[in-house]
């Protein structure tokens, strides 16, 4: 271990700004002498001591609680000292400087972002998926996300992945033993029921994949872009979904010149809804910039809601926009302002087929989503459609929070098990290929918990943490 990694570290562990309580955290090996130097006494492990925090000249910087957690029973697996004092920024900086000066002989330095959690991972206190869940729990913006992050942090996700990896190891052992003794003429695939075992592995992996997809949705959310020509009600729909006046609404075409982003939650799933400038031909240079940004947002969308106006249809213009929307991205055609149809828009005849169509659409019979952002009609169906596109299953088992890299690793493992199944469909002459696919599947699962992880990936993960965690 390099001196930089093994040196003691210190940082303010509470969020920037003023607060009732602030915490300075120190972690390192053999900090007993350091603690005695600070307080001129030993601290009882895992007991709170009310003490003055004095500098080298004896001046009292603050008074608060000091807690000492000897290794290995601490967050990082090393000796950890926590000083809990008043939460003023100036006070915390002085206490942190006190610790850094007192630990200078030990090489104590300011912690990097996420370094406390990284040390917990390196010291086998938690695995990599649990370490990521620490950051996810801090960043959770809904109750569902917080519960999912806590499930990951408690090891639910890791336990499922590890149990599956252990089952793959068992099958690998049987294969390797057969390859080591080729003179024994046995039909390995039949004798050890390798095909049923492999199918059981694939079934379990499919179940884990399904829950992980839910966890990724719960963490990442969906990037939903509202697109359409001017004045079709995009801003009104954003306000209706958000339950607040977050976008300016006027009857003047071209009111929205730039994107407006609002995060909303449906069944705990975060949706990043983007209101955009209306799409049309224009000579206004400012509006042109806004329309260019609209197309940029559309290119990044997970879901596109293409709004059209039920009260003032323009089929040619709407069809032209639809033709330019990217392929491969779910597009939901949303007919807005159905309240104008029912209330008597241009050319309305009471009791006509137009009224019947409005009534049918509000009952959910029509093939397109027809809504009124003004009255709220059809919004529940729109919310459900967005969840359906996300693949959200609120009636299923509660998901753990997961990341895109977890999903990729699981999919890689699934692909390798599929290849192993194809080899198993032949005969024992391809056992070496069968064994190799099992090994690769096992390695893919190991990358989730950190058993097989590159240093570059670790740096990328922990650099996204806040300092002090």
Describe this structure in words.
The chain is an alpha/beta fold and 469 residues long. Among the domains are: 3-126, 2-Layer Sandwich (Gyrase A, domain 2); 245-266 and 274-390, Rossmann fold, CATH 3.40.50. Helices cover 48% and strands 15% of the residues. The chain is built from 18 helices and twelve strands. The strands form two sheets. The protein has a six-stranded mixed β-sheet, with helices on one face. Strand 8 and strand 9 form a beta hairpin. Helix 7 packs antiparallel against helix 17, helix 9 (194-220) packs antiparallel against helix 16 (404-424) and helix 16 (404-424) runs antiparallel to helix 17 (431-449). The protein is flat and about 80 Å long. The chain starts with a helix and ends in a 7-residue tail after the last helix.
Number of DSSP helical runs: 18
Label the CATH architecture of the domain at 245-266 and 274-390: 3-Layer(aba) Sandwich
Helix-strand string: HEEHEEEHEHHHHHHEHEEHEHEHHEHHHH
Q: Largest beta sheet, briefly?
A: 6 strands, mixed
Number of β-strand runs: 12
CATH superfamily of the domain at 245-266 and 274-390: P-loop containing nucleotide triphosphate hydrolases
Under CATH, the topology of the domain at 245-266 and 274-390 can be stated as Rossmann fold
Helical amount: 40-55%
CATH class of the domain at 245-266 and 274-390, named: Alpha Beta
Termini separation: 21 Å
Structural class: alpha/beta
Indicate the radius of gyration in whole angstroms.
30 Å
What percent of residues are in strands? Answer: 15-25%
Task: Classify the oligomer.
Answer: single chain
Parts with pLDDT < 50 across at least 5 consecutive residues: 345-367
Side by side, the strands of the main sheet go 3-4-5-2-1-6
**Shape descriptor:** flat
Mean pLDDT, to the nearest integer, reads 84
């Amino acid at each position: 271990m390099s001196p930089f990694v093994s040196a003691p570290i210190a940082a303010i562990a509470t969020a920037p700004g003023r607060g009732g309580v602030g915490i300075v955290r120190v972690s390192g090996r053999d900090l007993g002498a350091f603690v005695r130097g600070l307080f001129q006494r030993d601290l009882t492990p895992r007991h709170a001591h009310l003490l003055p925090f004095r500098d080298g000249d004896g001046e009292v910087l603050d008074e608060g609680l000091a807690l000492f957690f000897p290794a290995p029973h601490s967050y990082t697996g090393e000796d950890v000292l926590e000083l809990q004092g008043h939460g003023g920024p100036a006070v915390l900086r002085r206490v942190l400087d006190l610790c850094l000066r007192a630990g200078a002989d030990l090489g104590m330095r300011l912690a990097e972002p996420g370094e406390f959690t990284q040390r917990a991972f390196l010291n086998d206190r938690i695995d990599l998926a649990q370490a990521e869940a620490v950051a996810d729990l801090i960043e959770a913006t809904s109750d569902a996300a917080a519960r999912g992050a806590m499930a990951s942090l408690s090891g639910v996700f890791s336990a499922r992945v590890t149990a599956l990896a252990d089952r793959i190891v068992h099958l690998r052992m049987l294969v390797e033993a057969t390859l080591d003794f080729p003179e024994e003429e046995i039909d390995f695939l039949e004798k050890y029921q390798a095909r049923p075992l492999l199918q059981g592995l694939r079934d379990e992996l499919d179940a884990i994949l399904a829950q992980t997809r839910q966890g990724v949705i719960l963490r990442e959310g969906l990037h939903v872009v509202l697109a359409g020509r001017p004045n079709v009600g995009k801003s009104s729909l954003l306000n209706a979904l958000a339950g607040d006046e977050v976008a300016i609404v006027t009857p003047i075409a071209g009111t929205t010149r730039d994107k407006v982003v609002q995060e909303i939650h449906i069944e705990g799933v975060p949706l990043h809804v983007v209101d955009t400038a209306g799409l049309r031909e224009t000579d206004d240079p400012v509006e042109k910039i806004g329309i260019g940004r609209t197309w940029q947002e559309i290119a990044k969308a997970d879901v596109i809601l293409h709004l059209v106006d039920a009260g003032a249809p323009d089929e040619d213009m709407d069809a032209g926009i639809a033709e330019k929307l990217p392929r491969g991205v779910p597009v939901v055609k949303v007919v807005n302002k159905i309240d104008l149809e029912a209330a008597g828009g241009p050319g309305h005849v009471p009791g006509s087929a137009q009224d019947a169509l409005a009534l049918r659409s509000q009952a959910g019979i029509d093939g397109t989503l027809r809504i009124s952002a003004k009255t709220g009609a059809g919004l529940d169906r729109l919310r459900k459609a967005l969840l359906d596109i996300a693949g959200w299953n609120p009636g299923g088992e509660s998901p753990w929070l997961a990341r895109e890299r977890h999903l990729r690793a699981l999919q890689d493992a699934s692909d390798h098990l599929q290849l192993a199944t194809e080899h198993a469909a032949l005969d024992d002459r391809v056992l070496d290929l069968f064994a190799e696919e099992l090994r690769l599947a096992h390695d893919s699962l190991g990358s989730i918990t950190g058993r097989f992880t590159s240093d570059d990936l670790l740096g990328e993960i922990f650099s996204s943490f806040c300092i002090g965690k």
